[in-house]
Write a structure and sequence with these properties.
The chain is 77% helix and 0% strand. It has ten helices and no strands. By secondary structure, it is mainly α. The radius of gyration is 31 Å and the shape is elongated.
Length: 193
C-alpha cells in the first residue's frame, strides 16, 4: 500500500509545474535543457519593433547624423527585413549613390516600401526625413494596435463556440428540463390529462 502511495507522489512531482519542464527534471542537472518556449518567442516578431526602429532613425537624424550613418546605426537593432534594407541603403549612400538607387532594393520589398518612398521623397524635395520617420512610426503603431484589437475580437468569437457546446447542454439539463418536469407533474396531478 505504501509503495503505491510513494509511486503516485513521485509521479505527481514530475507532473506538477515547476521552473523547468518535466522532461528536464528527469535529466541530469549538467545536461543542457532546450527551452522550446524561447525558440517560439524568437520566431515571433515584435509588432512594435518596426515602429521603434523608425523612432530610433528619426532620433538619429534629428541629432544631426547623415542618413547613411543613421541608417547603418539603426540597422543593428532593426527587425530582419528592415535591417537588411537599411544596411544596404546605408552602404550605397556611403559609396556616393543617389537616393533613388540606394533605396531601390528597399522599395521592392513590401515591408520596407514606405521607408524607401519617404527617403526618396525627402532626398528629392529636401524635406526632413526625421518627420517622415516619426509619421511612419505612428502609422506602424496604429497598425499594430488595430491588429491586436482584431486578434482579440477574433478570439472572443472563437471562444463562444466551445463555451456554447459546454454550457448549452448544462443549461438544458439543469434549467429547462426541471421546469418542464415540474409543469408536467402539475398538469398530470391536476387531472388535466
Amino acid at each position: 500500500m505504501s509503495w503505491i502511495t510513494l509511486s503516485l507522489m513521485a509521479g505527481a512531482l514530475l507532473v506538477l509545474p515547476g521552473r523547468r519542464p518535466s522532461r528536464g527534471r528527469l535529466r541530469d542537472e549538467r545536461s543542457p535543457i532546450v527551452d522550446v518556449d524561447s525558440d517560439d518567442r524568437r520566431r515571433r516578431e515584435d509588432p512594435l519593433a518596426i515602429a521603434a526602429t523608425f523612432d530610433l532613425l528619426a532620433a538619429c537624424l534629428r541629432s544631426g547624423l547623415p542618413v547613411a550613418v543613421a541608417a547603418e546605426a539603426v540597422s543593428l537593432t532593426a527587425p530582419p527585413p528592415l535591417s537588411e534594407s537599411l544596411r544596404r541603403a546605408a552602404d550605397l549612400l556611403s559609396l556616393g549613390a543617389d537616393a533613388a538607387t540606394a533605396w531601390e532594393s528597399a522599395a521592392s520589398d513590401p515591408a520596407t516600401e514606405s521607408l524607401a518612398r519617404m527617403a526618396r521623397r525627402s532626398a528629392r524635395s529636401g524635406s526632413s526625413l526625421a518627420g517622415s520617420m516619426t509619421e511612419l512610426a505612428t502609422e506602424s503603431r496604429t497598425h499594430a494596435e488595430d491588429s491586436a484589437a482584431a486578434s482579440a475580437e477574433r478570439a472572443g468569437v472563437l471562444i463562444s463556440g466551445p463555451l456554447g457546446l459546454c454550457f448549452l447542454p448544462a443549461f438544458i439539463c439543469l434549467g429547462i428540463v426541471p421546469v418542464v418536469i415540474g409543469l408536467a407533474s402539475r398538469v398530470v396531478d391536476g387531472g388535466l390529462l
